[in-house]
Amino acid sequence: MHDDLDVMEGSVSEEHQHLTFVVNKETFAIAVLDIKEIIEFATITRVPQMQDYMAGVTNVRGKVIPVIDLSSRLGLGMADEANRTCIIVETTDEGEMFEIGLIVDAVDQVY
């Protein structure tokens, strides 16, 4: 199953680990190093005149974070409001760090 991976058991580094999560019954993955934290779904404030997939913004320990409804962004329909998880992702944009929240249905496991 993992024949194409160049990793020996027991020597997997964080740079090769991925967190899988579910969006509208589809499984996706993101590199563990790109994830700052996983938080419970919080209050999201809608921002007028934003794209439909932009759920709005939320406050995480005094920091305002934009939040994307990943299901809507991927064209899979709007996310169900039951048991949602917000993954806060830290990424780079032209050398600058920024954080963004992704609404997903469930977090699965790390591979």
Keywords for this entry:
single chain, 111 residues, mainly beta, five-stranded mixed β-sheet, three-stranded antiparallel β-sheet, 8 strands, 4% helix, disordered N terminus
pLDDT averaged residue by residue = 80
Strand order across the biggest sheet?
Answer: 3-6-7-5-4
Q: Unreliable segments (pLDDT under 50, ≥5 consecutive)?
A: 1-10
What's the shape? globular
Instruction: Estimate the helix proportion, in percent.
Output: under 10%
Tell me which oligomeric state these chains represent.
single chain
How many H/I helical runs? 1
E-strand count: 8
Distance between the termini: 13 Å
How much strand?
Answer: over 45%
How would you sum up the major sheet? 5 strands, mixed
Calculate Rg over CA atoms.
15 Å
Order of secondary-structure elements: EEEEEHEEE
Structural class: mainly beta
Any overview of this molecule?
By secondary structure, the protein is mainly beta. The protein contains 1 helix and 8 strands, in the order E-E-E-E-E-H-E-E-E. It has one helix spanning 70-73; strands spanning 18-23, 26-31, 35-40, 54-60, 63-69, 85-93, 96-104, 106-110. The strands form 2 sheets. Strands 3-6-7-5-4 form a 5-stranded mixed beta sheet. The longest helix is centred in the middle third of the chain and has 4 residues, at 70-73.
